[in-house]
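Example record

One chain of 417 residues, shown exactly as stored in the release files.
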Amino acid sequence: MGRDSKNNKNTEAVGGVTGFDRALTGFVNSNIDKIALAALVLIGVLVRIFLIPETELSPDYNSYYLPWTLAYRDYGFLGGLSKDIGDYYVPYNVMYAICSLFPCEPYIPIALFSMAAEFVSAWFVRKILLLLLNEKGVDEKRAGLIASFAAAITLLLPFVIWNGALWKQCDAIYVVFLVISVYYLLKDNYRAAFIFLAVSFSFKLQAIFFVPLFLVLYFARKKYSILEFLWIPAMYLIMGLPCVLCRRGLRATYLAYFLQTQEVSTEGYGMVSYYPNFYNFGLDNYDEILTKPAILLAAAVLGVFAVYVIYHRQFLENKENTLYFGLFMAWTCCMFLPGMHERYDYAIVLLMTAYCLAIRRDKLWVAALMNVNSMLVYIAVLFKEMVVPITVISAIQIAIYAFVAFDLVKRIGGERA
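Predicted structure tokens for this chain:
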């Protein structure tokens, strides 16, 4: 015994291991999960800080966001809100007006708004995953680790980083309210879910992609009144009040979304703008013929799945199934509606990635391909490099969409419930 102890001491002396080394390695080994998580978050922050100063790659910053912010500086906060600046609805106009107040380059506060929204989204993604993991009976500590790392990884997704830090887009802002809405929906707090959905819709029209889920749940579960949907127009009117009170005019204020829907024909977008869907196969320039049929086709596909899941309404008693179904319905809007942009599936890819990372790792390849497709179209827009032809990207997107559709049908029908 004494000889072994002496040998150990000699080994430590030769190796140069000190008490500090033992304390350090002990601390790291005991807190490796927390350290790794903090490192992921820190990397997410640093990557954004390095990219934020770049403004030339964005196709929109110098053409739109910079002039809008400078216009608010010229007119003043209230004076600018009375003018017809930009083509976004009031909440985003208020954001640009706030950005104009900072004594720095406008890209800094614009990007920081998105960055803050991205991190809040990650927090609520974590809360959503905890709900799903708890439902599956996963141990609380293990569930916390899985949810935390999956949420942190979403901060490092290329399309998330590039959207706000590089492009200077603000999709993260409407998405954060949408993610919060989904969280409260899964918690069965329907009033809060509708309010946050309405706020998200007031920031951006694309929040409407998640309305089919709310409609199906209304008929399938009968746990809230149809009147809850009135939160959407009510919040839209409330969020428009800053411009109305500044005397911008009711028509100029409240018809913003109607004017946005006309962009398909007025700005030359055609049937699709870099979103990898069915219309990239030679149909882009036929928007005058195909727009209305495309809307009807989207309604038909949504309707078929809605009826099918309502017939198997027990499927939606499970929170995981509810999220999966909701993401598919929102994705269907992107795949079939006309005038889709490459950024419109932001919330879908974000939540699908987190879901596959934490809950359905056997479907992680689906989320991986969705992310690769998003990255490729962002590269085409931001870096002007079409690495893979859009028809190839679209074919892959259609294939994985079809897989998810068939997988969902089987699960709804009970084969994988």
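Notes: Residues 291 and 338 are 6 Å apart (CA to CA).
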